[in-house]
């Protein structure tokens, strides 16, 4: 690391280190001539003090932070994160604002990252994903006064503004559609049950089934990976009373589910219907194409960035906003179920 | 922005701001008792000076930088960038190192970003993508002494270590394979001809065609987007002497090319063969599956991160390394061409 240091500048300018420090910090203790020489050498060496650089941007770090609690290897496989980042960047790049990404192990590491980013002036605000029940991140961010926008909610985000996706409404749409197609045995391959949106979806699923007089649906947990979803799907389809329709928590897990169904000789959609939360190119490339609950993920990223800039500029008190609702896009993977 | 400031600490501790500054910077001018009180209040308020925080990490920023010269909206569509980031993160997360992402308009903006990151101690090094002919970034990074690893090369990277993909060899494999299948009229939907790897591929394509006695191949330029690739493919296929095989510079552009070929009523591979540089799930989900030149993109990201850490730790002089060669994976989109 050969970044120009105070010592480099001192050496080149032929003055002491403290003279350099005085000159660069515009403090008394050096002659005007020395100050000018030091500034010229510093500029020549490409040196810029932190404080001067920050002052140029009005004390801003010029970056926002996104901590990702996802195994690194999954980032490349699942479209959601990159589509969200793409939407964030569409707003950030217009402001020449950077994005600090940090993959973290768990919520504790995520909180430590927020503390460090804020204490070291590395970010002006953060985007928080996957709101939990009783989310410990909320209180920490409030205490730090670190501007933040939560994607999730609206309940449980304290004073932090949020963009709340309408997960219960999305699930309700799907279940009513499947019920209308004649499906009675539904299954749900769901993500982490500590996540607020998974709870909302699961509650809605069970509620609608109860209201419609359908049997109790099965919810099984699978993470974001292929392997986990494949295993969950195999178990569901090997059970004596296998479901006739499965709802997946992501597009990637649904694509894997389709592969497993075909591998097990089931005809989609004649014997089994499949639906994905999140739409992406993956859903449209498979055969049959996957029915999906679509929402504009880059649009949500851009909305989050705009809300975060507002929170950074105007301080706390920003309003939470609903995201646009999910749109159910029926494609080839769902069909009428006829009892045989 | 209510981050604790020197003034906040001064107010709470009941001392002057300069007393706080002396105490936090461990300079003379305050009593030991005051120093202790200031440090206690500062810690209580969650304040940490830049320099102290940096010192804890041995002067390191604890982050590396990646500037992306891609329109933000494309980041979500194309697997390459996210797979590369996924590979970088697999090494970064093990070291709790952050990744600073910045979407930039052009090379000039990218260079300005490097200067700013380095001057402000925001990154310890950078990964450079898409090496250009006479790349101006190389000289700037050398002058800054900013540790950097170039993905591309090995020629034209100056003293910077690089991971060079074997693009000429990959193209040679494909062309020889297509020639062996009976193809004579080849086309190449290529990216930016200022990029070194595009030049290498194009040169190899023309050279192998010449050696094999095939007609001069057609190279057309298309960016990374769907629209551009679709238009390029439509033009190629509408020409009187249309090619019997097309080689695309990315998986996404090849998937789009396949859609256009099917839309125009051509049978793949009977009337037209298609090959993609880069393999991903996209290639395996389409029908027919796309023949691809595969390389381990997350693996390359991880390799780049390891080389960058070595350059940061040990200083300049790190060796360039070849990436693993491309592997040609023939799938359903390529077949024997029979003259009709």
UniProtKB/TrEMBL annotation, chains A, B:
Superkingdom field: Bacteria
Region annotation Disordered: where it falls in the sequence: 317-340
This protein's record includes keyword Flavoprotein: no
GO molecular-function term, one example from the UniProt record: DNA-binding transcription factor activity
HTH lacI-type domain location: 4-58
Transmembrane stretches, start-end: none
Protein keywords: DNA-binding, Transcription, Transcription regulation
InterPro entries, A to Z: HTH_LacI (IPR000843), LacI/GalR-like_sensor (IPR046335), Lambda_DNA-bd_dom_sf (IPR010982), Peripla_BP_I (IPR028082)
Family annotation (Pfam families): LacI (PF00356), Peripla_BP_3 (PF13377)
Name of the protein described by the UniProt record: LacI family transcriptional regulator
């Amino acid at each position: 690391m050969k970044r120009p240091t105070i010592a480099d500048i001192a050496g080149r300018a032929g003055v002491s280190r403290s003279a350099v420090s005085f000159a660069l910090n515009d403090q008394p203790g050096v002659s005007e001539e020395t100050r000018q020489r030091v500034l010229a050498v510093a500029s020549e060496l490409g040196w810029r003090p932190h404080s001067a650089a920050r002052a140029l941007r009005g004390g801003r770090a010029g970056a926002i932070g996104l901590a990702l609690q996802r195994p690194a290897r999954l980032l490349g496989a699942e479209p959601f994160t990159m589509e969200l980042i793409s939407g964030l960047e569409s707003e950030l790049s217009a402001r020449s604002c950077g994005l600090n990404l940090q993959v973290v192990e768990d919520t504790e590491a995520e909180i430590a990252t927020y503390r460090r980013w804020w204490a070291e002036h590395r970010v002006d605000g953060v985007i928080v994903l996957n709101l939990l029940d009783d989310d410990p991140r909320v209180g920490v961010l409030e205490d730090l006064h670190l501007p933040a926008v939560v994607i999730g909610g609206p309940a449980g985000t304290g004073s932090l503004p949020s963009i709340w996706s309408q997960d219960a409404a999305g699930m309700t749409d799907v279940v009513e559609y499947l019920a209308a197609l004649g499906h009675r045995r539904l299954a749900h391959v769901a993500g982490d049950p500590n996540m607020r949106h998974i709870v909302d979806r699961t509650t809605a699923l069970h509620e609608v089934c109860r209201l419609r007089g359908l049997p109790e649906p099965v919810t099984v947990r699978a993470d974001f990976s292929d392997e986990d979803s494949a295993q969950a799907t195999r178990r569901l389809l090997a059970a004596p009373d296998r479901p006739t329709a499965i709802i997946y928590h992501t597009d990637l897990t649904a694509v894997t589910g389709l592969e497993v169904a075909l591998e097990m000789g089931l005809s989609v959609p004649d014997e089994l219907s499949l639906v994905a939360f999140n739409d992406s190119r993956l859903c449209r490339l498979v055969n049959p194409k996957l029915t999906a609950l679509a929402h504009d993920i880059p649009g949500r990223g851009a909305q989050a960035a705009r809300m975060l800039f507002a929170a950074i500029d105007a301080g706390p008190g920003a309003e939470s906003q609903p995201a646009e609702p999910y749109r159910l896009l029926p494609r080839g993977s769902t069909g009428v179920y006829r009892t045989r």
